[in-house]
């Protein structure tokens, strides 16, 4: 069975046990429901445990990229200052300009999926507005109340 099916089955078992809690407790079947629940969760747990290290490494790398970029920028800035190509003030100006632009691009890029959805929604709204109706709402013909 797939993980989603196992999780769904575990949810059904938990729901059944909670709905019939008095019967389960009266028949002393708590351990049986617990074992069934744990059995259905063991495969997804093991799969997620294997993926946790990968997700952790990817998350750590994604969080460290900004610091590597800072280190690279200041390293290059120190070279430019030592060669008298830039002043320290100019290095900081360029660094912060690039850093703030990078943050802005990152924040804007998170809205790209929303732009696609909004274009689709706008086209559906315009299609609905332009759709011909069977009743002429501007006509003077008919009974008035």
Automatic annotation (TrEMBL):
One of its GO terms (cellular component) is membrane. It holds the Pfam family ABC_membrane. It comes from the Eukaryota. GO terms for molecular function: ABC-type transporter activity; ATP binding. Keywords: Membrane, Transmembrane, Transmembrane helix. SUPFAM superfamilies: ABC transporter transmembrane region (SSF90123). Its main location: membrane. The chain crosses the membrane at residues 54-78, 90-112. PROSITE patterns: ABC_TM1F (PS50929). Residues 1-117 form the ABC transmembrane type-1 domain. It is a multi-pass membrane protein. InterPro entries: ABC1_TM_dom (IPR011527), ABC1_TM_sf (IPR036640), Type_1_exporter (IPR039421). It is found in: Membrane. This is ABC transmembrane type-1 domain-containing protein. It comes from Panagrolaimus superbus. The lineage of its organism: Eukaryota, Metazoa, Ecdysozoa, Nematoda, Chromadorea.
